[in-house]
Input
Amino acid sequence: MTMQSLGRRACPLLDRPTPSVRLPEAPDPWELRQCSETGFVYLDNPAPPALLEQDHAWEVSWAQANERRAQDEPLRHQISSIGKRLRVAVRRNKVRDLAIQQLQTRPADQRALLDVGCGGGDLLLQVAERLAQTGQAPARLMGIDLSKALAKEADAKCRAFGGQCLQGTALEALRVLPAASMDVITLASFLEHEPEPLSLLKACKRALREDGIVVVKVPNYDCWNRRLRGPRWCGYRWPDHVNYFTPATLQRMAQAAGLRVARMNALDRSPLSDSLYAVLAP
Output
């Protein structure tokens, strides 16, 4: 039986302590909670940022989760891997394509793209290469990543296009950037990692130009697969996934940050998809 209590982490949506209910999906020592006021689901005791730089860095936890799925459910894992390879083969990437569409409307000397949680910089490089293939000047590329190894890799790619990758927490790095300096900010599979997602969206709004956008992709906690799979849902990853969004809670957080949802259509928020997408604007 779950008990309602005040957790150790403030509700990320309200940015204050609230009564919450502990959910059973997370293995010890991690605690998954649901805010009783908003329904927002979050990890109550995330790992400190220092551990996420190396010991629990994205590439480490992803590899561990992938290995567990391959061992526990080899057939399902194989089918999923084939599907991912097919998506790569047909070059389907909604976040990348939305970023390109927005950048193409800008003068060549004003195309500034920031990828928060950029990993090794693959999305940034793909955007620049796609723009170059259409005869257009590539964007000025900026990245942010907490992993020391990945930030170094991304920095080399960004510098080839007159940009750089900042290593550190997203909030610290965003506050270094000049206000109103970015056309597009991508949060591709990042916001679920951020211990202070509301503050992060506010910092993104500050860094955006007046007509800029933020493109968001997060695991879809409202999807049918999560209900079907329970603790084995692919959207759960301990301890680096610390926020679990539904379409309603993502929209509410965006509004609390001073952003509006410019796009979240039926396909973006489909309960058939493990991923949830949104385009946010000032």
